[in-house]
Amino acid sequence: MSAQVAPTAELQVPSASTCVGCLIVNADDWGRDLTTTDRIRQCFEARAISSASAMVFMADSQRAADLARQGSFACGLHLNFTTPFSASNVPTELGEHQLRIGRYLKRSRLAQSCYHPALANSFRYVVAAQLEEFQRLYGSEPARIDGHHHMHLSANVLFSRLLPAGTIVRRNFSFRRGEKSWANRLYRNFLDGRLARRHQLTDYFFSLPPLDAERLTGIFSLARQSIVEVETHPANADEYRFLMGGEILRRTGGMPIASGYRISRL
Prior knowledge:
The chain is of the alpha/beta class.
C-alpha cells in the first residue's frame, strides 16, 4: 500500500530535470568502517547509486567525509542510536548517552513507538551532537536525514521535533495492499503524516532486497511518475554484486538513476 501524505515532487538534478518522477538509490552506512565506505565509493564511481547516508563518530567517518568532499558525493546524515560509536574522538558522555538509548530501543520492537520521558535529554543530546559533527566533517548542515535501523522514526525523535524543520527525512517503508496488517499501515501513515508537517518526503520508500526481478520491476516503474527512494547496503555481498554488476541498470528499463538527492515542492 502506498503512503499518501506528500504530493509528487520533482527531483532537481540536471539529468532528471524534465522527469515527472525519479529513482533515488541511496546507500546506507557510509563511514561505518573501511570496507563499507570503500564499497559505497565504488558504487558511486560506477554511478549505481545516487547518494549515501553518512554515519558520524564511527571508525571511518573522517576518511569518508574527505572522500565525499573530494568526489562531490551527495551525503545525508544517518542518525545512529543503536550501534556503538567507534571513532577515537567520541566524548565519554556522548557514548554513555548513546548506549543508554540503544539499550532501550533494542529492548523490544515496541520501544521505538513509545515515548520515554526519562531519555528525552539523552535523545536531544545525541541528535544535536551528530548534527554538529556532520557539519564539522562535511562543512554544512545535513539537507537530508535518515536513521540507522530507521530509529529516526522513534517517538522520542518525532514528538520532541529533534530533526531540523525543512530537511528531507526518510519516510516509512511503502507496502502494497495486503503486505502488512491494517493496524501496521495505519500507524505508518500516521507517522508519515507527522513527518510531512515539518519535512520533505519522497512518495515511496523501499529496500533493494529481496532481489526479486518482478518486485524490482514494479518498484522501478513507480519512479516514472513518482519520487522513489530505494535503500541499499553495499556491505551486503549480494547487494554489492547486484549494484556493481550493472544488474540494477538493466532492471530499471531505461529509467536513469538520479545523480543526487534533492527534492523541491511543485
